[in-house]
Amino acid sequence: MERSLTVLHAIKDRELNEECGVFGIWGHENAAHLTYYGLHSLQHRGQEGAGISVTDGKRIKFHKGTGLVNDVFSEEAIEGLTGYAAIGHVRYSTQGDSDYANVQPLVFRSQIDSLALAHNGNLVNANALKYQLEAQGSIFQTTSDTEVLAHLIKRGGSLRFKDRVKNALSMIKGAYAFVMLTEDQLVIALDPNGLRPLSIGRLGEAYVVASETCAFDLIGATYERDVQPGELIIIDETGLSTERFSSSVERAICSMEYIYFSRPDSNIEGINVHSARKRMGIELAKEAFIEADVVTGVPDSSISAAIGFAEATGIPYELGLIKNRYVGRTFIQPSQELREQGVKMKLSPVRGIVEGKRVVMVDDSIVRGTTSRRIVNMLREAGATEVHVRISSPPIKYPCFYGIDTSSESELIASSYSVEEIREQIGADSLIYLSPEGMMHAIGRNPEWSHCGQCLACFTGKYPTEIYPDTLLPHEKVQPV
Ligand code: SF4
């Protein structure tokens, strides 16, 4: 199902940012320690908060806080999380505020049981459901969209837990990779479009689940398979059971996971992210060759594509830009002035490499154009005679509603300007984007699937789910809960 977006939706004023990362483990005496390491390897997916919930079979304990994983967890905090199963989360707030209450896992306690919940993605009908749930008496503790699922599960009353989860999942729309923990079950669910990556592995007898396979490598786990769209997995003392909770399934994994978000050492459905990016660079070279002296990539996510571009053209790849790794997340500063300073603090040109040279600068995307303009300027100031910009993805023209923090449509430079106008604004000698076909070919997913099973909505405006913008009245879009 594809629908074009007709109503604009204001999203927070930020550059393109990561979403969240989830991790879970069942059946290991060091569950909390391993979750801590797993979260470390997912840190690139969210830096605003982190948390771990653990069960010993009788009781769920948790520890969470704002900041990086290292800031949140002391050795003492981890030692206090005794149990054989755990879930963890790193957060970047695409929905809700970035305060402590919204840091996940969210933990809900009742007289008879508890539920810990961690979510990667974004529910597009969360506000509409909240409106209805509040009208029926629910009180929300957070401004996070994730809490909606907990309320829907709780409302299932005397049904079996699995059936309550299935009923709740059938009501929510959008992107979600959920890991949930009760006193005696680890529950995993992926939305019917499989918008976010989620993989399962084994560590000895233990089961592990993570947003990216790089988390398995760190703890020595073996990758088993990716969770399938619309799949519900329950792991308990009897083992792992799986079923589909939705019959309407159509793969549409986020293309930006391959282009930008995921770590290069992760594999998504068997496709290595670095290799996919390198092939994007090769396709880009076929589509947009230019005579030049050096190729450089904008660190870190564009380096793989730059290597591919250099390999295909025979132009040497050089480290023309260096990233200062100790600046922190300057891009989250909201004002334009601070964002511009942020680019300077984060990147430096290598004068000895680019001076007197015709430079091809490969980047993975352009959001507002501000960053690209600053980098082109820096290269020129460092003596580059020509700067040719090559982008290893198509122009981003539409906002994302699925957990990627893009700007509102009016701030996406490609939604208002032609490629030639963007070239002029960023001050490049030439600018060419990779075509959607080239990108899909490079990623190499099954060509028989619609759009190779990828979400392309930020390039095409064709969203794989219905969209429920805040501007629509909730009762216009949802059935009674
Ligand atoms: S709209 Fe773009 S960023 Fe969002 S899920 Fe789809 S491909 Fe990813």
Question: What key phrases describe this protein's structure?
Answer:
single chain, 481 residues, alpha+beta, seven-stranded antiparallel β-sheet, six-stranded antiparallel β-sheet, 17 helices, 25 strands, 29% helix, disordered N terminus, disordered C terminus, binds iron/sulfur cluster
Characterise this structure.
The chain has 481 residues and is of the alpha+beta class. It has 17 helices and 25 strands. It has a seven-stranded antiparallel beta sheet with strand order 4-3-5-2-11-10-12. The longest helix has 15 residues, at 273-287. The chain is elongated and about 70 Å long. It binds iron/sulfur cluster. Iron/sulfur cluster binds at residues 195, 254-256, 400, 402, 404, 455-458.
What's the SSE blueprint?
Blueprint: E1 3-4, E2 21-26, H1 31-41, E3 49-55, E4 60-66, H2 69-72, H3 75-79, E5 85-91, E6 106-109, E7 114-123, H4 126-135, H5 147-154, H6 161-171, E8 174-181, E9 186-190, E10 199-203, E11 206-210, H7 214-219, E12 222-226, E13 231-236, E14 239-244, E15 253-254, H8 255-261, E16 267-268, E17 271-272, H9 273-287, E18 294-297, H10 303-313, E19 321-323, H11 336-346, E20 347-349, H12 351-354, E21 358-363, H13 370-381, E22 386-391, H14 413-416, H15 419-426, E23 430-433, H16 436-443, E24 454-455, H17 457-460, E25 462-463
The structure holds iron/sulfur cluster.
